[in-house]
Specification:
Radius of gyration: 20 Å
Number of strands: 14
Structural class: alpha+beta
Length: 271
């Protein structure tokens, strides 16, 4: 790196610049970005040119029940100022995060937005955990599921009861943020029941009437088709898109660290 570049941990004093860089790179509005920083512990690495933040990444921390001695780091909001790209700054930050994770015996996860980024992350030491393809359905039947009352605590309970070891355990503020993101994008979280068992579905809706499922969790006595029918019944959507594992599909989550003990079912939803 250039001599006037230096790496620092993110602090509250850096937030105005971090918010601006995030906005410039991803287009999210300032209120959403501020909510992110308000609801999550500030954990990130920056590269500064003199006193200017020119590259950044942030880390959400969770854990995995299958490997309880390993914290889980989820790399989020990687951004480099346009005038400072192709200088290896993000690679430097990823290596810094990996070094911190190694010291903490942590597993590091990242989710590439496209195949080009998957190749880049692979060169940085990340290995694919699963591949997926996007499916779409337009055929629905009447649903026997009914709307149920729910809360953040109910969401956590359903996750714990239904996903068993096949999940990353996120703090409640992370799930609250995911719900807020869905609602900001014309979606919601819907709780449902068949009278005996319960579940929920987290979805977003674009300008069309097609709906995208972010996550759905439910008991074994409920089928995925029933969930699709329920979502159609509640929203009137014309089509529903979702992701399913596929050995020839796009790379989904990638990880760095000892992932040999992981047994994660990524068949539906982004965990």
């Amino acid at each position: 790196m250039k001599s006037n570049y230096h790496i620092k941990k993110a602090t509250q004093a850096h937030l105005p610049q971090c918010i601006q860089l995030w906005h410039d790179c991803f287009g999210d509005d300032d209120a959403f970005i501020q909510d992110f920083f308000c609801q999550n512990p500030l954990h990130g690495w920056l590269i500064l040119e003199d006193d200017l933040v020119v590259s950044q990444l942030f880390i959400l921390q969770g854990k995995h029940p299958h490997v309880p001695n390993h914290p889980v780091y989820y790399i989020y909001a990687c951004a480099t100022a346009e005038t400072h790209r192709k200088q290896g700054l993000m690679t430097t930050l990823l290596h810094q995060a990996a070094q911190e994770a190694s010291e903490e015996n942590a597993l590091v996860f990242i989710q590439p937005a496209d195949s080009h980024l998957a190749d880049y992350y692979s060169r940085c030491g990340f290995k694919p955990i699963y591949r997926y393809k996007t499916e779409s359905t337009h055929t629905f039947s009447p649903s026997n599921l009914k709307i149920a009352s729910g809360s953040l605590e109910k969401m956590l309970q359903i996750r714990n009861n239904s996903l068993n070891s096949n999940r990353i355990i996120w703090p409640s503020e992370h799930l609250e943020l995911a719900t807020k993101i869905a609602k900001d994008e014309n979606g919601d979280i819907l709780f449902f029941t068949n009278g005996f068992e319960t579940g929920y579905i987290l979805y977003r809706q674009g300008e069309s009437q097609a709906i995208s499922i972010d996550e759905t969790v439910y008991s074994q006595g409920i089928s995925f088709q029933e969930v699709l029918d329920f979502l159609h019944q509640q929203t009137g959507c014309k089509a529903i898109t979702f992701k399913q594992t596929d050995s020839n599909g796009m790379v989904g989550a990638m990880a760095m660290g000892d992932i040999s003990q992981l047994e994660i079912d990524w068949s539906l939803g982004l965990d």
